[in-house]
Amino acid sequence: MRLGSTFQLGSALLVLLAGCQQCVSADSETLAPPEVSQYNGTLYATCKMRPSTSLADGLPKVYGRVLLKQDYPLGKLNVLLRFNGFPTEGDSQPRAVHIHQYGDLSQGCDSTGGHYNPHGAHHPNHPGDFGNFEPQEGKITAMIESEATLFSALSVIGRAVVVHEKMDDLGRGGDAGSLLHGNAGRRLACCIIGIASPEAWNTHNKLYNRRLWRG
């Protein structure tokens, strides 16, 4: 091959690579909702928890909020849980909270599908496995970091958060259900994650920090 031809081929490849980099950059920008720019590089989301419409008699009616906050593009997802409606006496067992696959409440919480598990991993290695939370005086208030994300093709926006009847066995139950959903029992309450302004996060975060300060 002639030197001139080699030079022309190399130049063409450089142009192609530059164009691909621009494509990747453009694709990345399309995966960031406009609210990221509006709120200084941070995306906020919220989920208003309500009891399942198919809730069995005798189970607690749980209400509350899930607040989510993440810096674009690689920040950790911060999740603030604020629930009430659990028994105040005689039952303080931990309750499992998970992100489920579908934002579909047409059949109560039963239509939200299984755990959100994009990588096909065994439980509790799904990105939406928040863990167990023990109610205090009928309430759960907790701040956690999650492996889930509000960005990219793996975004949990539009999916559901579910509060379960029982404690998650964290995959140690020794049966198929343990590796699938942690044997956490029936679904008490659920909600769909949606993009929000910072107002709800700021309000509930202040309440959470005030509670910590009071001890």
Describe this structure in words.
This protein has 215 residues and is α+β, with helices and mostly antiparallel strands. The protein has two domains: 30 residues; 180 residues, Sandwich (Immunoglobulin-like), CATH 2.60.40. Strands 1, 2, 3, 4, 6, 7, 8, 9 and 10 form a nine-stranded antiparallel sheet that branches. A hairpin with a 5-residue loop joins strand 2 and strand 3. The longest helix has 28 residues. The protein is globular, with a radius of gyration of 22 Å.
Write the SSE topology.
Blueprint: H1 3-30, H2 35-38, E1 42-51, E2 63-71, E3 77-84, E4 95-100, E5 106-109, E6 129-133, E7 139-146, E8 160-164, H3 176-181, E9 187-192, E10 194-196, H4 198-214
Antiparallel strand pairs: 1-2, 1-9, 1-10, 2-3, 3-7, 4-6, 4-8, 8-9
In short:
By secondary structure, this protein is α+β, with helices and mostly antiparallel strands. It has helices spanning 3-30, 35-38, 176-181, 198-214; strands at residues 42-51, 63-71, 77-84, 95-100, 106-109, 129-133, 139-146, 160-164, 187-192, 194-196.
Helix-strand string: HHEEEEEEEEHEEH
Total beta-strand segments: 10
Percentage of residues in strands: 25-35%
Measured distance between first and last alpha carbons: 77 Å
CATH class annotation of the largest domain: Mainly Beta
Helix content, binned percent: 25-40%
Q: Using the CA coordinates, give the radius of gyration.
A: 22 Å
Summary keywords:
215 residues; alpha+beta; Immunoglobulin-like; 4 helices; 26% helix; globular
